[in-house]
Design goal:
This protein is of the alpha/beta class. It has helices at 7-14, 48-51, 56-63, 128-133, and strands at 71-79, 88-91, 98-104, 107-115, 124-126, 142-147. Strands 1-5-2-4-3-6 form a six-stranded mixed β-barrel. The protein is globular, with a radius of gyration of 22 Å.
């Protein structure tokens, strides 16, 4: 008696089925204009001024902070790679890239929040431009409040 294997045939037949569209639920969000990514620093960069390629307009946009927003949590942060341009925070407090804000002492700025992939409580990395905007010591460990 011959045995016919039907499972492989069914698997191949399912490849032509149309995908079902599922609408994503609407979630309230605070809209912060996306910042454009500045150019990378030159290979010859050696100083903080040379590594920070953000424009005056980028820095001004980062300091125009709107009121409100949900607090995501607190984190400690150190300086991230100075070769990665922009005003950002890599943190385990988010799972997807989004716009948000950080507060350090009395200063609050807009940043791009990037997932770090680390475990909760593992700390964060902050861009050189963001560290300069909040006037934090570049070699220090800073305590930040992260907001969406």
């Amino acid at each position: 008696m011959k045995r016919i294997l039907i499972l492989p045939l069914l698997t191949l037949a399912a490849c032509d089925l149309p995908e079902a569209e599922v609408a994503a639920p609407d979630a309230p969000t605070t809209v912060i204009p996306a910042m454009t990514l500045p150019p990378p620093p030159p290979r010859t960069a050696r100083t903080a001024d040379q590594f920070d390629t953000t424009s005056a307009a980028d820095r001004q946009a980062a300091t125009l902070v709107s009121a409100g927003g949900a607090e995501l949590g607190r984190t400690t942060a150190t300086l991230g790679s100075p070769t990665e341009p922009g005003i950002w925070l890599k943190t385990p407090l988010v799972t997807a890239v989004s716009q948000g804000r950080i507060r350090y002492q009395s200063r609050t700025i807009n940043v791009e929040l990037r997932p770090s992939g680390g475990a909760a409580g593992s700390g964060s990395q902050i861009s050189l431009a963001a560290m300069r905007l909040i006037e934090a010591p570049l070699t220090g460990i800073v305590d930040l409040t992260v907001l969406r």
